[in-house]
Amino acid sequence: MKRKCDKCDRPATHHSVEIIKGQKIEKNFCEAHAAEEGLESTPHKPINDVLKDFVAVQSGGSTADDVCCSLCGLSFSEFREHSLVGCPECYKAFASLLSPLLERAHEGGNHHVGKVPRHAGRIEARQVQLIRLRQRLSDAVTNEDYEMAAQLRDDIRRFEEQAS
């Protein structure tokens, strides 16, 4: 059923519902009367943009962009863009920002409940060490220290061979 403006007979384009002291008050206005009431007309946005804005607001907005993982250097804005963390340390670095997202995705849960393999701590320590080596390699290449980069490359290869 098409609604008409509360002030004229034109079709209503703005609808609002307010609850004041337990009373539901519905208002319907055409474009002209909505402008008189101070309601802005905003064009429809693609759902992708709406979802991005929603995630930005729910995860702390622009201040979250400043947070970076101390181990791999991933920023929270990069995480939001790709929806992938860079290393296990990212979960700790972004804990306060990820918690609301995880709770919504996992019906209120934000931590693992269940069995953990006995060797999990050793694997995580090896992953952290490997990530640090790769970060040092990246820094060496950036600084054009090719001798150090070659040494780190060889260290990474030996480290990965030991793991397999």
The number of distinct β-strands equals 2
Mean pLDDT: 78
Cross-sheet strand order for the largest sheet = 1-2
Unreliable residue runs: none
Q: What structural class do the secondary elements suggest?
A: mainly alpha
Distance between the termini: 67 Å
SSE inventory with pairings:
Elements: E1 14-20, E2 23-29, H1 31-36, H2 47-58, H3 76-82, H4 88-93, H5 95-105, H6 120-142, H7 146-163
Antiparallel strand pairs: 1-2
Helix pairs in contact: 6-7
Short key terms for the protein model shown above:
3 domains; two-stranded antiparallel sheet; 164 residues; mainly alpha; elongated
Report on the structure:
It is a single chain. The chain is mainly alpha-helical and 164 residues long. The chain has 3 domains: 1-42; 47-105, no CATH class; 120-163. The protein is built from 7 helices and 2 strands; from the N terminus they run E-E-H-H-H-H-H-H-H. The protein has helices at residues 31-36, 47-58, 76-82, 88-93, 95-105, 120-142, 146-163; strands at 14-20, 23-29. It has a two-stranded antiparallel ribbon. Strand 1 and strand 2 form a beta hairpin. The longest helix is centred in the last third of the chain and has 23 residues, at 120-142. It is elongated, with a radius of gyration of 26 Å. The N and C termini lie far apart (67 Å). The model has no long low-confidence stretch (mean pLDDT 78).
